[in-house]
Every structure is written in C-alpha cells, then in structure tokens.
Amino acid sequence: MIQFNNTDLAKVQEMISRYPEGKQKSALLPVLHLAQVTFGGWLDVPVMDYVASLLKIEPIEVYEVASFYSMFNLKPVGKHVFEVCQTGPCMLNGSDQIIDYIKQKLNIGVGQTTADGMFTLKTVECLGACGYAPMMQFGKTYREHLTKDKVDAIIEECRAKAN
Amino acid sequence: MARKLLLEKAHVEGIRHYDVYRREGGYRSVEKALKMQPNDIVEEVKKSGLRGRGGAGFPTGMKWSFLAKPDGVPRYLVCNADESEPGTFKDRYLMEFIPHILIEGMIVSSYALGSNTSYIYIRGEYDWVTDILDQAIKEANENGWLGKNIQGSGFDCQIHVQRGAGAYICGEETALLESLEGKRGNPRIKPPFPAVKGLWGCPTVVNNVETLAAVVPIMNEGGEAYASIGVGRSTGTKLISACGNINKPGIYEIDMTISVEEFIYSDEYCGGIPNGKKLKACIPGGSSVPILPANLLLTTAKGEKRLMNYESLSDGGFATGSMMGSGGFIVLDEDQCIVRHTYSLARFYRHESCGQCSPCREGTGWMEKILLNIENGKGSLSDIDLLWDIQRKIEGNTICPLGDAAAWPVAAAIRHFRDEFEWHVNNPEKCLTENYGLRHYADPIHVPV
User: Fold this and answer.
1) ipTM of the complex, rounded to two decimals
2) Site from B92, B169, B178, B183 to mutate, A interface, most A CB atoms within 10 angstroms
3) Domain A80-162's class?
4) Integer distance in angstroms from the first to the last C-alpha of chain A?
5) List of chain B residues with pLDDT < 70
6) Residue B375 in contact with residue B339, Cβ under 8 Å?
7) For an interface test with B, which of A12, A87, A96 has the most B Cβ atoms less than 10 Å from its Cβ?
8) Domains in chain B with CATH codes
9) What is the longest distance spanned by two Cα atoms in chain B?
10) CA separation for the pair B144, B153 (Å, rounded)
11) CB spacing of A128 vs B123 below 8 angstroms
12) Peptide bond between residue B74 and the one before it cis (omega within 30 degrees of 0)
C-alpha cells in the first residue's frame, strides 16, 4: 500500500499551504520530489495516482507533469544514480572521457543500471556548474572537478556504504 | 580593482547566517524601504538603470512600472532562480554563499510591487541550495523581516521556495509560471504579459536572482550612485561566470568598463588560457548568444577594444558581435573543435525544447543530427547550407525565445567558422583523429605578457 507516513503527510500539508486556497495543484512538483525520494527513487503509476488523490487532481495531470521533467524517473533506477553533465562547457573539460570511464568501470551503457542494482548512469544537460567541470549530480549534491580517481573514490564510497 | 556591490561580503566567515549578515549591515535596505512610498522605490530602481540580469537585459524599473494594479487582485513577485543556460552559474553562487542578499532584495521588491506572497522558483538540481534558502527564510521570519506586519510597517510579506525538476525551458518566465502552477513547462503566448496576467492569472513580475539582489545596493546607496558605476546604459556591476579553457574559472563581479582582453588575461579575472595555449573563440553571454572568433571578440569590427558591457558586446549586431546575455562566459582554446562544440549545444537545445512549436521541436533535432554527421565525417557540403536554412526557419517562428536560442549558436558557428565545417566534410577521415586548430582566427591577437 502506497502511503506517506505522518511526518511526510505533514510536509505535504505544509507544501500545499504555500499557495492560495484552491491552488493546491501548485504543490505538485514538490510533492512528486518527496514521493520519488520516499518510494524507491522512481514514480510508479500507483505512486502518481496516490499523489493525484492527495492534491485532489486527476491522475493524468500528474502523469503529464512527471513525464515532462527530466528529474522524475518513470522507470526504476539503481541505488546510486550518476548524472554526468555532457553539455558544452563540461565537454570542453573532458566530460566525454569521464562518461566513457564510468561506462567501462561499471560495465554499463548510458541509461542502464548495474546487475546488482547499485548504480545507474545517466547523461544530463547543463546543471549550472560549468566553472567546476566536469561534474555530476550525485544524490542531493554535486561532485565537481571530476577525474578518473575521483570517480573511483565515489564508487568505493557507495560500495562501502552498502557493506 | 573594481568595486563590489554584491560579493563584497561573500568571504566574510559565516555570512550565510543571519547574525553575521545583519552585523555586516544586512537588511538596512528594508529598513530604508519601509519608510518610503512603494512607487518611490520603483522610481529609484528606474534611476539606477538596472537591467535584467537573467539574459534579456530589459530595464528592471520599467518592467516594474508595467505591473497592473487592479483592485482586490493579489500581485506576485517571482524570483527566477532556474539558472540553466549553459555557461551560467552565478545565481547559484549568490544563493549558496549569501542567501540573505536575495531574501533582502526580495522583501524590498515585494514591498515596492505590493506582493504579499513571493516565490523563488529554483532549478530542481540545486537541492542543497534550496535548503540554504529555506534556512535563510526561516531566519528572516524569526527576526521579523518576513511574516505579518514586518518591522511594524503594516506590510505582510512571505517568501516560499519551489524547486523545479529539470527543464531549461522553465527559465522562460511564462513557462516558469506554468511550472509554478504545477503544470508542464510550456511557455504561454504573449500578450498578455505576466505583468497583466501572470501567476494564477494575477499581475506578476518575474526577475532574476542577481537583479533582485542588486536592489539591495540600489536602495542603500541610491539609484543615482548605482548608475554612476559602469558606462552608458550598462550601469552598476555584473556577475560573470567564467568557464571553459581558462586558468581561473569562477564568478567575477565586474564594473562594465573593463575590456574583454583584460577579463580573459588578467590575473584578477580568468588568468589566461591554460598551458600557454591560444584563444580560439568565446561565447561571452551563455550558450545561446553568438560565438565569436578571437579577433572579433577582442576588437570590434570598427577596430575598437571590446568591453565587457551590454553595448560593446553587441556592437556590430550578429554579423560581427554577440551579446552580454546572462554573463555565462565560455572560452575555447586552440584545441577545441567548433563543430563538436556546436553539436553539443544543439543536443542541449533538442533535449530542452518543450515540443509545443514544430519549428523548434523538429528543427532542433534535425540540427543535432546533421551536426553529428558532419562531426563524424559523414556530412556533405550541402548539409552546411541545410543547417543554415533550418536555423533561419526556427528563429522568430516560435512562441518563446528557445527557438532563437537554439538557432543563434548554429548560425554564428557557420557564419564565423564555415571553413572548419567544410574541412570536416572534405576530410572525413582526418576529422575523426585531428582537430582543425586555429587557422586564421588567432592571427590578429597578441597575448599580453
């Protein structure tokens, strides 16, 4: 059964309260972010239906939004998602080589997840860290000035956490 | 050394927190503003000559004066913190390190515009920055700068932060408003402009982070004092985010009198190009503005030194000039391939097109594919003309400026570097292993010692 706990439900109420009466649909993006973090890193249809019921909107209004924004995953992803920027300024600083290295190191292609479900590799477009390129989004924060050694260290860090 | 108005206190230990920020003179502008009539604040901003720092460069005071004020209808101020233009990362720096300057600027602006509830729409990836802003808002609330009857003025003011979820298009103000309403980020047809019908159909002003932060020094020092900095219609200071092939990438606050050459080569700013390499090209204002070869970047077609300001960067129009844009300064050294770089930008715009208008939805994809072919030695000479033709048919034919933004980089690359495209076509094997290099582009440049 898909259900936020009471703490998260209070968060949803706080999100709705940021907007005028009757404009609760505006809370859709924040609530979807919360739902994605809470329910396994992606938005399955029942999760989106649940969000629709919380905001008193039609499920289709949730689907069309979830499918528009690149941060919402509509398929399962690994426990750790590497989202490597590949746009111009990062490319000038070697992002292609970093992406190739991660592919080879994890033995997966872009958009794929390792067999153990630990890692997903995604390429993304400009994340606004051009001066600290190459970089990737890793969970809540950025990892910047990436090198092969730094990639190794991040992978080790994830594996250490799992053990 | 240029005077700093926004980043002056950026390196003060603990400036992110209210107590330190207040001790360093923070929130003075709110105290001053609340004693003034809202319209007088708008006049002060007009006097300052402040131009929108998000990219379009529209005069902020004028934008504010367009706000409709029908009786009984709420008005809204929305801060555009959806910084996504490749090469631009200045707003993040402000919000991450001096969040209170944005909150302070927003309170003054909300008072001036009569917005009791204002929103910051921040790009979804800046997750930790959202936490920093939330904390700053909490501190401002606890100290009576936000909430009901702030500082006993009778004015109620609240600020909320909303995270986007990964869509460049939401930096376009009407797409941003759609997104803030919980919808897909499809830009609206204008008119009506947000000043008349914006958020939930109410009159709304949307301003960039840096623009709203600049309201603080304008209030503290007066509009005329702010206007006395800089040159011509480029008043005050501008944040430039510098990246690409330079020794010191980062955020620089400049007054807009310095030359492009000084900005790239001086140790106070970018510190030159790494490994003694030569400058090949530069996109001076975020990926959407035209790329310029080194000679036209440093010197205008008239032979004048090009300066880092709105007028000088656009001198010569698109034929020989570019734009100040968002201040995303991307430098390419002699080893960079223009075709490859243009392909990367074309892929970006294809990915970010919202899909509403067919010239943009289809055209960006075609441009990406053709550029990839040329880059991989599979192009023909007619492809170059086809690219030119497609970009012309996108420009001006879409609801929002994303179409133009996608067309301009391709147009400028062909305009100034056509021989490099032709070289790729004529050398399909060689272009896979070698770069075209500088050829004639760097000839007129001297590198200062």
Assistant:
1) 0.96
2) B183
3) alpha beta
4) 29
5) 1-2, 440-449
6) yes
7) A87
8) 18-228 (3.40.50.11540), 231-333 (3.10.20.600), 338-442 (1.20.1440.230)
9) 74
10) 11
11) yes
12) no
